[in-house]
TrEMBL record:
This is 6-phosphogluconate dehydrogenase, decarboxylating. Catalyzes the oxidative decarboxylation of 6-phosphogluconate to ribulose 5-phosphate and CO(2), with concomitant reduction of NADP to NADPH. Its EC number is 1.1.1.44. It comes from the Bacteria. It comes from Chitinophaga ginsengisegetis.
Length: 469
């Protein structure tokens, strides 16, 4: 008999998603050239479920119920185009092909058009939650045409994470919207990870906390307003022993940070729109700067750190850093969501922000109790320009503002790098300033380049012959 769903690429994500589908009663078939991955798939299946692995793409396609529904989980870029090229001769009109990887949305747009000409539905779907999420319930961000979504909706709802019984999946807009939302999710992920690592330095260098104490702090934070997946795993990380030395693993890990590009794409696209996402930009820049290991060691010998130390007592400092992390985390979501709003109208994707924040509440890497608060904000006003303009969010931000300023001031005076926190605060201070100092930039542009300016007291465009003094 024929199978309900097919998967191309049985790496850990593909395999786990497929097993998750099988656990929810779907009969599934996976394709991977690597025979070992096919047997690994079958061996991992829950007894009683229908799971098959094959080493020929054509065999898999023949064994699928029509219209066929299949997903590919292969590395972004050329591998996706290669899979499409080998699939095309095997497919028929009405089939649905899903790209569940981290593809760039412009590639997705191109592929949607390419397959539409052949009568095949192509959907870009963001999947978040890592290995574990894929197996037990990821957050799923689908975009594309609604007819195709209807065909896979029951399956996606079945396998997704659930929050209060609601599946963490919803139709998130047209064409490349799924991958766009996932890209911005990853930008926010970069920002929050940067902020957590700054909090770690502030507690470790600023207050001398050891790994056990850091574990306790993050564990208690995860039980309060900062409850989130990233804070939760951070607490765990401090306790992990190294099996190659007598140290904690975190202390022997190199500080050069890797990246696969999705954070960078978020910043690049934000510049393109344009929309301001400085916390994400800083997070990307700090991963890059972390790679300058030799130069940093050289500079460390030249530039001595200031002698100033943190003056708050330890308990007080922990509370202040908590508040700064809360503040800057809200700012990171605010910038990412503002970006989605702008991109949605600019690229005509019709991304429903109230649904985005609901989908992010569970399963994904940036899930946190804050998303419940944002969900309420969008319930009050679905067209909110920036979540900072919501009354409830404003109240929360104001409650931690002064501790945030204090942390940043002390970090600056002690020479502890907190670029993420600083970016969050400077965005906030500019955003809450009704009249910025950019009138001077307009004057300068007009002075040297006759770029013209507008006035505050009358309509029109003006140019002045500026006088040298
Ligand atoms: C997720 C993650 C996932 C992955 C990214 C981040 O939502 O499950 O975002 O997509 O961890 O690849 O990668 P880098 O940090 O390597 O850029």
């Amino acid at each position: 008999s024929l199978y309900d769903f097919g998967m191309i690429g049985l790496g850990v994500m593909g395999r786990n998603l497929l097993l998750n589908m099988a656990d929810h009663g779907f009969s599934v078939i996976g394709f991977d050239k690597d025979a070992a991955k096919n047997s690994a798939l079958e061996a991992a299946a829950t007894p009683g479920t229908t799971v098959k692995g094959v080493a020929e793409l054509a065999t898999m396609v023949q064994l699928l119920e029509r219209p066929r529904k299949l997903m590919m989980l292969v590395p972004a870029g050329q591998p996706v185009d290669d899979v499409i090229a080998s699939l095309l001769p095997l497919l028929e009109q009405g089939d649905v092909v899903i790209d569940g990887g981290n593809s760039h949305y412009t590639d997705t747009l191109r592929r949607v058009k390419q397959l539409r000409e052949k009568g095949i539905h192509f959907m870009g779907i963001g999947v978040s939650g890592g290995e574990q999420g894929a197996r037990t319930g990821p957050s799923i961000m689908p975009g594309g045409d609604l007819d195709a979504y209807a065909k896979v909706q029951p399956m996606l709802e079945a396998i997704s994470a659930k929050v209060k019984g609601t599946p963490c999946v919803a139709y998130l807009g047209k064409e490349g919207a799924g991958h766009y939302v996932k890209m911005v999710h990853n930008g926010i992920e970069y920002a929050i990870m940067q902020l957590i690592s700054e909090s770690y330095t502030l507690l470790q260098k600023g207050a001398g906390l050891n790994n056990d104490q850091l574990h306790e702090v993050f564990k208690s934070w995860n039980q309060g307003a900062l409850q989130s997946f990233l804070v939760e795993i951070t607490a765990d990380i401090f306790l992990q022993n190294d099996d190659k030395s007598d140290k904690r693993l975190v202390d022997v890990i190199s500080d050069k940070a890797g990246s696969k590009g999705t954070g960078k794409w978020t910043s690049q696209d934000a510049m393109e729109l344009p929309v301001a996402v400085p916390v994400i930009d800083t997070a990307v820049a700090m991963r890059t700067l972390s790679g300058y290991k030799e130069q940093r060691l050289e500079a460390e010998a030249i530039y001595k750190a200031p002698e100033n130390t943190i003056h708050a007592d330890t308990e007080m400092w922990i509370k202040q850093v908590h508040d700064a992390l809360y503040f800057a985390t809200i700012l990171s979501y605010a910038q990412g969501l503002a970006m989605l709003r702008e991109a949605s109208s600019d690229l005509k994707m019709e991304i429903p922000l109230p649904e985005v924040v609901k989908v992010w509440r569970g399963g994904c890497i940036i899930r946190s109790s804050l998303l419940e608060i944002f969900t309420q904000a969008y319930q009050k006003n679905a067209d909110l320009a920036n979540i900072l303009l919501d009354e409830g969010v404003a109240y929360l931000v104001q409650s931690v503002e002064s501790n945030t300023r204090s942390v940043i001031a002390q970090a600056a005076s002690a020479g502890i790098p907190v670029g993420g926190f600083m970016s969050a605060l400077s965005y906030f201070d500019a955003f809450r300033t009704g009249r910025m100092a950019t009138n001077l930039i307009q004057a300068q542009r007009d002075y040297f380049g006759a770029h013209t300016y507008q006035r505050i007291d009358m309509p029109g465009t003006f140019h002045t012959e500026w006088q040298q003094h």
